[in-house]
Amino acid sequence: MALLEIMKLLAVALTLAASLTPLGPLGELTDLAVQRVQVADLVAAAKFGTPQPIDDPVREKQVLDTVRAKAAELALDPENAVTFFRAQIEANKLVQRGLYARWTEHPEEVPQHRPDLGTEVRPVLDRLTTSILAELKDTEQLRHPTLRCRIDAVIAERSAVVLRGLDRLHEEALGEAMGPVCSK
User: Which residues contact 111 (CB under 8 A, 6 or more apart)?
Assistant: First the structure.
C-alpha cells in the first residue's frame, strides 16, 4: 500500500476517533437512537426479577400517543413518527430480552442497583423522545426511501457502533431502531 493511501486511511481513522457523534447527516439522530438503546439496560435492570413484563402494551400506547401528538405539533407526519418510535420500542425490548437471557445464565452479572422506572428511567426516555422528534423534524428532507438515505444511515450506524463501542446485542438493537429511518 502506498504511503499516501496509508496516510488517507489514518486521517479517516483519526477523524472517526475524534468525532463526538456518528458521522453524516443522520449522525445525530443515530446517536439519539444509541442513547435510547443504552437506556434499555436501565429498563432491564429495573424489571429483571420482578413481575413487570418486558412487553408493556399500556405504556407503549402512552408513548406512541404522546409521539403522535408531539409530532403533529412539530408538523411532522404523526404516523411516520409513530413508526419510527415503534422501532425504538422494539429495539428496547430486544435489549431487555438479551440482558434477561444473559443475567439468567450469569446471575453474577445482574446489576446491583435496581433503578426506579418512574423517577429515574422514564424521565430520561421522555427527554430522548423530545430530542428524537426534533431530530426527525430536522432530518425530514433527508429521510426518503432513496439510496442516498440508506448510505447515510449505514455510515451513521456503522460509525456509531465503533464510536460507542457497542456490543453485538446493542448493535443489533440499533439496527432495529434505525430500520425505518429512510421510509418517510
Answer: 41, 45, 48
